[in-house]
Amino acid sequence: MAGNIEKSHPANSLLREDAIPSIWCPGCGIGTVISTFVETLEKMNADLNKICVSSGIGCTGKVADYLKLNCCNETPGNAIKCAVKFKLKNPKTKVVVFLNDADFIASGADDFIEAGRKGVELLVIYINNFIYIISEYKVTPTTPFIRTIDKNLELPFNIPHLAKLSGAQFVARWTPLHVRRLMYSITDALKKPGFSVIEVVSPCLMYYATEGKIGETIDRMRFFHDNTVIKHSEPTENLDIRTQDKIIMGKFVDK
Ligand code: SF4
User: Fold this and answer.
1) Which atom of ligand 1 is nearest to the CA of 58?
2) In the chain, how many H helices and how many E strands?
3) Which residue from 46, 120, 164, 181 has the fewest beta carbons nearer than 10 Å?
4) Looking at ligand 1, which residue's alpha carbon is closest to its atom 3?
5) Which of the pair, 145 or 133, is modelled with greater confidence?
6) Is any atom of ligand 1 closer than 6 Å to the C-beta of 204?
7) For the domain bounded by 25-254, which CATH number is listed?
8) Is the pTM of this model over 0.70?
9) 194 C-beta neighbours (distance < 10 Å), count
10) Could you tell me where the DSSP H helices lie in 70-213?
11) From ligand 1's centre to the CA of 29, what distance in Å?
């Protein structure tokens, strides 16, 4: 009987049901990235005992709480440090770090660059939601515009370029619309022996959609479709979002 069919989330196998429902807004790209990550692990038939997830604070910081995987979750700005420590103690484990603006450039950039320079085998998935404000007067370096724009003198970083200069062996950028391509990139990156970085451009719905900058959730997908272009191997110095008519997506470094 159709009415008796139990419905379950496709990513249930790796979700901590006791922690669900999540705090994430319906349609937020974080959920899309996590379900793509879970699906990728299942498709790869990955040994889940050999996967560890690290995340920091804010909405993205909840990733480690919701997954049935080895996790290390530390204080703000320490997600990469914690991941590196875990990796050194468990060299056979793949460590995946989920970051947002505050964990990353604002307070974890030195750890990011050091991990890249040392070639630590990590996969960093940076969900760029362009929102983090540390205080009314201090916007993070990846937040280009928001209510406090007139007070933000920082310019947003070109993340793929920073990743390449830091020594990443694999660098890609996608949006929550490009889930299949994101899955291919996660698969490729998890097979790399070195430092890998994937940026997912995913503006926060609370700030951007509700203020009418991108429209409703479905409009955001149309926005991604109409305003992105795929250019694999594009030199990373050309990937500054501010200088592009269309945001360039693709796989830029694959050593
Ligand atoms: S839409 Fe914004 S506030 Fe909502 S979960 Fe996503 S990042 Fe957080």
Assistant:
1) 8
2) 8, 10
3) 46
4) 206
5) 133
6) yes
7) 3.40.50.970
8) yes
9) 17
10) 79-89, 109-118, 159-165, 179-190
11) 8
